[in-house]
Specification:
The chain is an all-alpha fold. It has a domain at 227-283. The protein is built from eleven helices and no strands. The protein has helices at residues 28-33, 36-62, 71-76, 86-95, 100-112, 116-129, 134-165, 186-223, 228-240, 244-257, 264-282.
Length: 283
């Protein structure tokens, strides 16, 4: 059967959808770009990658604490002194479970593979077997500071992820006189609550790890009370976790042991600020 189409004048054109009016000189993308959260979500993937690279490179180049991995360790190809694999080092601890050095080597192998939490467990075993090994305490403090930094980075990335995933952030919400949303988005609320809990958990773990680093330095100070470097490391770790009293005492001890050290001027300035903060909080 032949098909026939109703002819229409050549000048007739198909009807086009009428686009809503918008301000002169603007485009839909430029209008949306003025809204913070749509813009954040659009570029968040690249920001996430950028921050991950910054955190990763900073972690490698600068190192964390006395036991951190620096650029020299990477260039040397191995962060451990024994060069053992994790499996070989573990086997050695099983053969000689009372050998503190075997546990040190195991901890080093784990640290080289980025298994910081497991390395801390192994190093604590080594310290139990050789409680007067001062280098083990410094390494332990460095591992705890590494873990603290890792968890801080996790918290920062989770905050970025929360902003990226919250679906209602791209739309203006109606708020009452109190500033609270009249029609809260249940999906956004659930996402924010879930990720917010993970952020708090990561920050709490970072604080705990930093406190354990301070404890390791205290034990090291007990073995080397006249080493100014140990006092300085203790003071810096204590200051990081907000233990002002310990930081002040360690800085004062450092100045007594090394008054002419090149860092003395900076330490005096830190002491001045800490004392002022302590006086303000007590007042």
């Amino acid at each position: 059967m032949a098909r026939f189409e109703k002819s229409r004048p050549k000048s007739a054109k198909p009807h086009a959808a009428v686009a809503p009016a918008r301000p002169r000189g603007s485009t839909p993308s430029s209008i949306e770009d003025t809204m913070f959260f749509p813009r954040l979500r659009r570029h968040a993937k690249w920001m996430f990658v950028f921050l991950a690279l910054v955190f990763g490179l900073g972690f490698v180049v600068f190192g964390v604490g006395a036991g951190g991995t620096g650029i020299g360790d990477v260039l040397r190809g191995s962060g451990g002194s024994s060069g053992q694999s994790v499996s070989d080092a573990r086997a050695q601890t099983e053969e000689t479970p009372k050998d503190a050095q075997a546990w040190r080597d195991y901890a080093t192998a784990l640290e080289t593979e980025g298994q910081t939490a497991e390395a801390i467990v192994a190093l604590n075993t080594a310290i139990e077997l050789a409680p007067k090994d001062d280098s083990a305490y410094r390494e332990l403090a460095g591992l705890h500071l590494t873990r603290a930094t890792e968890r801080q980075q996790d918290a920062q990335l989770l905050q970025i992820r929360a902003a990226f995933l919250a679906p209602s952030q791209g739309f203006p919400s109606l708020t009452g006189s109190s500033g609270q949303s009249i029609f809260p988005d249940p999906v956004a609320t659930a996402v924010n609550a879930q990720l917010g809990a993970k952020v708090n958990e990561a920050l709490q773990e970072a604080q705990t790890e930093a406190s354990l680093a301070v404890d390791a330095y205290r034990r090291l100070v007990a073995l080397q009370p006249n080493d100014p470097n140990v006092q300085l490391e203790l003071a810096q770790a204590a200051q990081q976790v907000g233990d002002t009293a310990t930081a002040i005492a360690a800085y004062e001890r450092f100045l007594k042991l090394a008054p002419d050290d090149p860092s003395a001027a900076v330490v005096r300035e830190q002491l001045k600020q800490l004392r002022a903060a302590a006086a303000g909080s007590s007042g």
